[in-house]
histidine kinase (Dokdonella fugitiva), 342 residues
Amino acid sequence: MSLADPAASAIPPSGWTLSEQSATPMALVDRGHALLAANPALHDWFGGAARGWRGEPLALLDARPPLLSEATERAFVEQRRVWLREARVRTAIGDRGADLALTPLDADALLLEVLPIAAEPSTTTRLSESLRGFAHEVRGPLAGMRGAAQLLQRRLDADDRELAGLIVAEVDRLASLSERLLHAGAKPRLARVNVHEIVERVAALATTGADAPLRLRRDYDPSLPAVRVDADRLLQALLNLVRNALEAGAQELVLRTRAEHAARIGERAVRLAARIDVVDDGRGVPAELADTLYEPLVSGRPDGSGLGLALAREIAREHGGELGHASRPGATVFSLLLPVSE
């Protein structure tokens, strides 16, 4: 047997060996429920970390203790194969689901086989289908809204015509987003733009659509160069962040830009990045949502959709960027980081 860890290639005390050619993730377990050896397929399935558990109690891998320990003991005592269906197993890349087969080889050794569960349609997949259905249904109403706003533009005074023009522009943007949802997988339409123009559009929409008076401050870095982005997508991401702040009870909002030199975006280093901060004085991010905040359908409000932040992060990553936050009650900052140069 030849494994990635040279020490693991030795024959375990039980005398049994594993086939390294097998595509099924497998491990040997001793009578004390300790992991003796693993084949390469198990290393891969565990994210390359299986060798780190050699000699460790098998129970450490159980995300739903004590189910795995109980099944292992039953297999040894009854000397028969025991199945643990839809188990949750701890791996280096997070908890994963699998069916586990525990087969006694003798009184002192047991073969553990990991059979990954066939993937069901994920929440994200189902969500994408729902969004495409929604996009199809709103195209007609959007066209009607645009026509009505254009008629109003012709009959209103200068100030009100500007507001009607804002409606037309937003309807056009929503229509464009709907088309992109209907043709999922389309790449962003990138062009070099002045991000301050986009942030100013966000400011106009935030103050126009706020239900309560909103104090809005701007803090722009004039040295920030043009950034290659999809303007509509970036606008959508920033609007989602602003809407999130308003729904958290913000009364003051700060839109801030900075040029960051020698920045890190995830694991990458970039010479220059554009940072756009949305700072608010709302209630902050609930502690219980800190680890799942950007997942679809996760919301701190009973009537929340849980889509805004998930979509904002998706847009950031479409551009090779990232979205993060820091929060406490009365002071929350969402920071959108975009590469200007690698």
Notes: The CA atoms of residues 5 and 51 lie 6 Å apart. The helical segments are 40-45, 67-78, 123-155, 158-182, 195-209, 231-247, 308-318. Confidence is low (pLDDT under 50) at residues 1-10, 120-124, 298-305.
